[in-house]
Design brief:
This protein is mainly α and 303 residues long. The chain is built from nine helices and no strands. The chain folds into two domains: 134 residues, no CATH class; 153 residues, Orthogonal Bundle (Lysozyme).
């Protein structure tokens, strides 16, 4: 019976180790592409970058879940093996056998936890290098993962302005940018910086929940949105529309129902970098540079 239990533990551990190694290899593969490639410059490259980012984020999420599970299992096993070696000298045979099995489980769980944490270290390194690769220049991709947390984004906005007039708390708003950005493959933290620039850090709006100042020119129809999520989604979807020439209609967006006003879908596609927004999102040719400069200030404040 003990032999079967030991074999079962070893097989379970082998399967877990295989999953960890596969996640690590995925992270390394994405890391290798990130370190040897310049910022993507065309639509196909941008979509590949977004796909890589999604894969990396999924792998890291899986590894983090495994680490949490391994820590819980290790804690349970440790609690069951609290008996000292000295106490075993005077214990009955059945208790000694049970303790030995518990220690075998503990040894297996310790090894599982070590491998899980090693894989997480590799994944975190991949995420860091990916981030350094994509955030060093305004000529980097509109597509990709958010590198900042919602808390870091909200804290930066709160320090920048004391008279915020958003319809939801800053932390909620920051989370919406990250969430909607993930749906469309757009970097939600940079879009949040863009919204700060457009609204004076959420203190002045051309229309309700219009964080990207859509239709904000003097002669334009100023757009308003029913909810904060609707407004964030419209801004994110317009960013994707500008950068992704494979989109043909509102039905092609990942997040449905789409909230981007239909007239923007007649404006055609543009560049795929933040710098390329200049002269298109705003008449100012250096508009994208200003957006990115604000984003880099947000990154530096969090470092």
């Amino acid at each position: 019976m003990n032999g079967l239990r030991s074999m079962h533990l070893q097989m379970t551990y082998a399967r877990r180790l295989g999953a960890f190694l596969m996640a690590a290899l995925l992270c390394v593969a994405v890391l290798a592409r990130a370190t040897r490639a310049d910022a993507p410059t065309n639509s196909a490259d941008q979509l590949r970058a977004a796909h890589d980012a999604a894969q990396l984020a999924g792998a890291i999420e899986h590894v983090e879940a495994d680490v949490r599970a391994a820590r819980r299992a290790y804690a349970v096993a440790l609690a069951k093996t609290a008996t000292s070696d000295g106490a075993l000298l005077h214990a009955d045979p059945d208790f000694i056998a049970t303790e030995r099995r518990n220690r075998l489980v503990l040894q297996t769980m310790r090894a599982r936890l070590q491998h899980a944490e090693l894989t997480l270290t590799i994944a975190d390194h991949a995420r860091l290098v990916w981030g350094l690769n994509i955030i060093d220049s305004p000529n980097s991709s509109i597509f990709g993962p958010s590198m900042l947390t919602a808390q870091a984004m909200a804290d930066f906005a709160a320090r920048a302005h004391t008279h915020v007039r958003a319809t939801v708390p800053l932390l909620t708003l920051a989370w919406l940018f990250i969430d909607e950005g993930e749906h469309e493959g757009v970097r939600g933290d940079v879009a949040f910086a863009q919204a700060m620039l457009e609204t004076g850090t959420f203190s002045s709006f051309v229309g309700p929940n219009n964080f990207g100042a859509l239709g904000g020119c003097a002669t334009c129809s100023h757009d308003g949105f029913a909810t904060a999520r609707d407004g964030v989604r419209a801004q994110i979807q317009l960013l994707r529309w500008r950068a992704d020439a494979s989109l043909h209609s509102a039905r092609d967006f990942a997040a449905q129902p789409a909230t981007l006003p239909a007239r923007f879908l007649r404006t055609g596609h543009g560049g795929t970098t933040w710098a390329s927004l200049g002269g298109r999102w705003s008449p100012d040719p250096s508009y994208g540079l200003h957006v990115y400069a604000l984003y880099l200030r947000m990154v530096e404040s969090h470092a």
